[in-house]
Write a structure and sequence with these properties.
It is a single chain. The chain is an all-alpha fold. It is 54% helix and 0% strand. The protein is flat, with a radius of gyration of 30 Å.
């Protein structure tokens, strides 16, 4: 990388960076909650209640999601192309073996 490219990348990063994170999207709720707890303990008051999440997060079974994604990708690449299926069958015929049909081609002739 040339020195000019590095300078350009650093300049771009400087223009995109910001020093102040203010506004409703950048509220430090952890520090605010900790300050409330400290203040309550200092004044011997009951601790504030922790708010419940508005909606519980969905628990995903990552292995199932991955398996489904892989199956969809394989199906779209392997069996989705009829000309490809015909080419595979022709190649298998030349080799003297039967070609496994895809989901939509099982038991059907092209």
């Amino acid at each position: 990388m040339s020195e000019a490219e590095i300078e350009g990348a650093l300049a771009l990063m400087d223009t995109m960076a910001t020093d102040s994170l203010e506004g409703p999207d950048f509220t430090d709720r952890y520090t605010e909650a900790l300050a409330q707890i400290i203040e309550a303990k200092r004044e011997a008051k009951p601790l504030p209640e922790a708010p419940e999440p508005a909606q519980p997060a969905a628990v995903l079974d990552l292995m199932t999601a991955l398996r489904e994604s892989v199956q969809k990708a394989q199906a779209s690449r392997t069996w989705g192309c009829r000309p490809c299926a015909g080419a595979r069958a022709a190649a298998a015929e030349e080799d003297g073996r039967e070609e496994a049909a895809g989901p939509e081609g099982r038991g059907q002739e092209d």
